[in-house]
Automatic annotation (TrEMBL), chains A, B, C, D:
<feature type="domain" description="Cupin type-2">
    <location>
        <begin position="269"/>
        <end position="335"/>
    </location>
</feature>
<dbReference type="GO" id="GO:0051213">
    <property type="term" value="F:dioxygenase activity"/>
</dbReference>
<dbReference type="InterPro" id="IPR011051">
    <property type="entry name" value="RmlC_Cupin_sf"/>
</dbReference>
<dbReference type="Pfam" id="PF07883">
    <property type="entry name" value="Cupin_2"/>
</dbReference>
<dbReference type="InterPro" id="IPR047183">
    <property type="entry name" value="GDO-like"/>
</dbReference>
<keyword id="KW-0223">Dioxygenase</keyword>
<protein>
    <submittedName>
        <fullName>Cupin domain-containing protein</fullName>
    </submittedName>
</protein>
<dbReference type="InterPro" id="IPR014710">
    <property type="entry name" value="RmlC-like_jellyroll"/>
</dbReference>
<keyword id="KW-0560">Oxidoreductase</keyword>
<dbReference type="InterPro" id="IPR013096">
    <property type="entry name" value="Cupin_2"/>
</dbReference>
<feature type="domain" description="Cupin type-2">
    <location>
        <begin position="101"/>
        <end position="169"/>
    </location>
</feature>
Amino acid sequence: MAEIKKQQWTPELAEFHKELGDKNMGPLWASVFSAPEPKPRAVPYLWKGELILEMLEKAKELLKVGVGSIDRRAVYLINPGMKHLEPHGWGGATQTLYAAVQALNPGELAPPHRHMTSAMRFIMKGKGASGVVNGVKYTFEPGDFVITPEWCWHDHVNEGNETVFWMDVLDIPFTSALTSSFLEMYPESRQPVEHPVDFGTKRYAGGMVRPISDRRPSPAPLGRYKYDLTIQAIDGLKELEPDPFDAYIVEYINPSNGKDANGRIGARMQKLPPKFKGKAHRHTHSVVYNVYKGSGYTVMNGVRFDWKAGDIFVLPAWTWHEHVNTSGTEDAVLFSANDLPIMEAFGFEREEAYTENGGHQEIKSEFVPEYSKNSVYIK
Amino acid sequence: MAEIKKQQWTPELAEFHKELGDKNMGPLWASVFSAPEPKPRAVPYLWKGELILEMLEKAKELLKVGVGSIDRRAVYLINPGMKHLEPHGWGGATQTLYAAVQALNPGELAPPHRHMTSAMRFIMKGKGASGVVNGVKYTFEPGDFVITPEWCWHDHVNEGNETVFWMDVLDIPFTSALTSSFLEMYPESRQPVEHPVDFGTKRYAGGMVRPISDRRPSPAPLGRYKYDLTIQAIDGLKELEPDPFDAYIVEYINPSNGKDANGRIGARMQKLPPKFKGKAHRHTHSVVYNVYKGSGYTVMNGVRFDWKAGDIFVLPAWTWHEHVNTSGTEDAVLFSANDLPIMEAFGFEREEAYTENGGHQEIKSEFVPEYSKNSVYIK
Amino acid sequence: MAEIKKQQWTPELAEFHKELGDKNMGPLWASVFSAPEPKPRAVPYLWKGELILEMLEKAKELLKVGVGSIDRRAVYLINPGMKHLEPHGWGGATQTLYAAVQALNPGELAPPHRHMTSAMRFIMKGKGASGVVNGVKYTFEPGDFVITPEWCWHDHVNEGNETVFWMDVLDIPFTSALTSSFLEMYPESRQPVEHPVDFGTKRYAGGMVRPISDRRPSPAPLGRYKYDLTIQAIDGLKELEPDPFDAYIVEYINPSNGKDANGRIGARMQKLPPKFKGKAHRHTHSVVYNVYKGSGYTVMNGVRFDWKAGDIFVLPAWTWHEHVNTSGTEDAVLFSANDLPIMEAFGFEREEAYTENGGHQEIKSEFVPEYSKNSVYIK
Amino acid sequence: MAEIKKQQWTPELAEFHKELGDKNMGPLWASVFSAPEPKPRAVPYLWKGELILEMLEKAKELLKVGVGSIDRRAVYLINPGMKHLEPHGWGGATQTLYAAVQALNPGELAPPHRHMTSAMRFIMKGKGASGVVNGVKYTFEPGDFVITPEWCWHDHVNEGNETVFWMDVLDIPFTSALTSSFLEMYPESRQPVEHPVDFGTKRYAGGMVRPISDRRPSPAPLGRYKYDLTIQAIDGLKELEPDPFDAYIVEYINPSNGKDANGRIGARMQKLPPKFKGKAHRHTHSVVYNVYKGSGYTVMNGVRFDWKAGDIFVLPAWTWHEHVNTSGTEDAVLFSANDLPIMEAFGFEREEAYTENGGHQEIKSEFVPEYSKNSVYIK
């Protein structure tokens, strides 16, 4: 981002800079395009689960999902540091990631479409919903991770009897930056289902093996990653030393190529055992965290963010962070989505451990939400 | 980019949208993140060579390049469609590409640094300058293409007796969007030169062969692509049918991996023979054109942009365009830089030919520069 | 393989051919290097489990494994069609694969070495043995699949109280053909163990997720694939339609890259349900089958090979084959190793389904072992 | 290759080994499959140009090329160390490479076919011949390098008025070892020509740039590499330090992917300046050298092989070698083909410099051809 150098320019130069600006040019010598280290526009932030649910309850009263009505009942999270970009910007939770929470009532259908943005969902609460991704129907249960890679048809339906809530993460800010958004609506209100229910999940019921027909790389051989198998994997790690930063952590993979399950968006699940106090580090990729179980806090650039199940918080690029489980008896379980695949594709990923003070940041303040009376949506 | 849907909301909903905004959230149903087709912020635009040179002449009077003074005397091009992003934005010529023209006087030295942004230079005018890239000194001659891939040390010096002008293209808007800008200054005023002058160029003096020590992929085995060899290649094509859009066109490659010479930024050189009248197409990648020889015009989304040697014009993403050489006797030669490698890395590239009207757009207007009295640099 | 064309040559030509041969040259016109289809030297063959065990019992009486004695007590399988290549050849079970059965008695240690050939083991019988692969100790249990990729140190020890039997598969014929055999003996009688026992297995205890530290491709993040997790995966497939050729079949993968677990040698496990009668097909890769459970037969190029648990049989390249489970109540479980990764690396893999006779070959004869009194080992 | 260990076995063991052999099994403990270093079957060898031409002259008298007659008039080179493999073997010049010299008379047509083996040709002498590769006609001139990657249709014709001679190199021993030979005859006596003559060569007339339509990797964008452009490239190197082993050497590349021009077979051209005395090294890949100009010698494993233009000599895997130009005034020019791409595909390539005696082997003897009266072609 270009900043204007804080420097006393002569009147002649100031006049010249103005002339350049008038003519759609700029003076490189007076601009800062590159800094010694990344300075993300996004700030560390946290949205309380209660607040998100309260907003979705209002949305449920005011709006119905379905054909002829709204397509998706989702409230997205706007990083306060990027708020000035709205409505000109793109509603980013971080530099590259959009995050929202969606609610689908019994009987509602979110009709099918496809887009160049990648999408993933983490099921937070409720049973009975399902989604169809390119002709395969996947049922949603709490803790499941469901993928919708780019340009795959997808719709959602709730055939149960309670509202189902999930978090959506898409790479909208990234695809917006590249001006590569294509979108297509499906001509029917639902896709035909062409395979047995939970096809991919049945094909991947156990260890590190795959059906031989998935030998060729493909975008979504396994559409839904069940919570219980993931937890089984994490619990296997408990016999080993915990990672100093993340305790017991795994990432979801595409079994046809060993890459991230969702292509451009990485996804992970981690358990912090009781009283786990992680060390601090930072990296160029950014992260959206969804607290699935337990309670604790994360220190980001010296600010303590307390969290409990249902909360969502974001870690911008190159931001020091450390996680703590404050419970003495319960595990904390965090799901997270990241833009690491994008950063790695161009060699941008860097990581650094915090070495001072035994690896722990000094806590300078506690997080206070920045509610504004200056909403971008006021007319 | 999120637009607000043009829709009559009930007072309750309007109030709710405002409340969401206050709490750093947004209503997905009232936002447009994805459109059926890309809508670039950038607009087609052209900067006349005379204007650019005039600005650089002023800069030469007002500023000196060197240690203790300014690092680079470069005037960069601001796409009017992205101007509102300044100074908060990044000075993009297109969605991902920064472009500037730089002038280096005899005796001046632009000191060494390196950054995560990729850089390339196209030498426009003047002799006697040279650059050192990771210990290899390359002399600059008009028409040469010189690369500085990410994180390579580079400096420039003019040891001749005339001012040398070149165009710089970097992927600053892209690396800014990913918050991945690292920058490091070299501890000395010049890098040591570790190889014979024009080392890479001497190693690639002929056909499609390489020194066997360049068998392993590396970022810049050949640092400078000489104009005469490139023209020899283009002239070989003249015995074949011209491309309907681009006549005789080649792209610079890295001989160690067959990919684009500069990694994340593609570069091409093309000749339009006398009276060539290209057909229209559009693609998701964006382009910066530098007219090296000749004169003609390019129609972009129905607007005719006349150009001649020295002019620079930009093609945003997904914009219809067709090139015409108006001379009956002279070739036109265009150098261009593009973000195709970035688009391809994630499967974003799409292309479409214009099929109506024999492949030619209706010309609705002629380009008029939009000079503004409302410069972003006014204090 | 060059055959001499069956043709009546003139006396002058016959004389000329002889002269060429004398001078270390050959007449291309009189040779057949390429045929319309592959003609493998290897033939379909089967070794009965009882015979293999009988031979190993003799070897146990006559030889002891350990430092100062023999390194490995293994009996390898010689394809009769390649027998004439012994001792000049390489003891291939197929064109590229060596297969052997190894027996390790309680208290014996097979000392560490490493080689450029890839190795894998399938544990057939017995408990108490383990292997150390590059510093990680893996315990062996029946049905487990254990890998030793190229140039990894490996040794084996039996700390239990019964003999343990396993099948080794290596790509010795392939590495021999490429003259790329390097071998190094470890300076000590055992490697130090640097990680918790069964480290990799504990790190991969569940679904399609991996520890984040295995994000970078590496040769053996998971050294042993446990039988029970593999069977859990296969049983997940039973809700779906069986594969017409192979019923329920999975292949072992390296979770860091999605490629075959063992690099150059593929490995699979399959279940044929009771009364399964597979269809015939052929492919250019060759296979070594190890019958782990059940009984049935496989028809290869019209010959019926009956098998039961403990038997090993080989399928040469481009050979029609179909599998049948003759039991009405029990599953048959086949482990198999193949050279598909080698074939695919150069685009050599082709596959063809048998379309006549409902997809089933006519059975022309039953397999009879070809015991020879003309052993290559007679002095 | 399995050797039998030179060891005194007890009578019981000897009897047991025999029994195993009778039953198509072998004792691992008595076999040597892996050695500390590769021991190639192939030996260093040289065929004098005069001898090859003499043989081809006889072949010209005795045989005519064309439809209804023989397909190709080629005499192939049999490595004496692999001679015992004939006719069961594959006529290898090295472990993986077949080499032959072919003569085509004015008016003759070698009809089209295609095969899974890769082929390349180096034009040694004569003008007027040409080949059609997948619909592109390439004219042949001395010093040109022409490729025929796997499964490409190819035929040759001589429309001039002198006999044309070229060396063919194919990977027949390699594809034979993998049993992957497919061959198909073209239904007509000639292929239709679908592009302008020398299409690829015209598209690559200069420096390191390519037509943009060759951006996607393809097997043969450039079918013929002209001698003069290759020499221009080599001469560019002369301003730099010569390589200690190979003086001035380049390798032919595929401009669409930066890999070897012919996929599985590497090809190089090198100039040894007058009095150049290279140092010795060895590597796991094997090489066929064709002396195009000049005279000198190569020491291989202590034996001196004198050569001059027209001679062909072979370097087996892991063989010490050093090249010397004995002329005080003339350059020596060597074309060579190698199996490096095959070795690298599986990580098999290793290289070692000879460090004793200033990098030069002691010359123990001079090469004497091993003419045999025991030809494999005698009936």
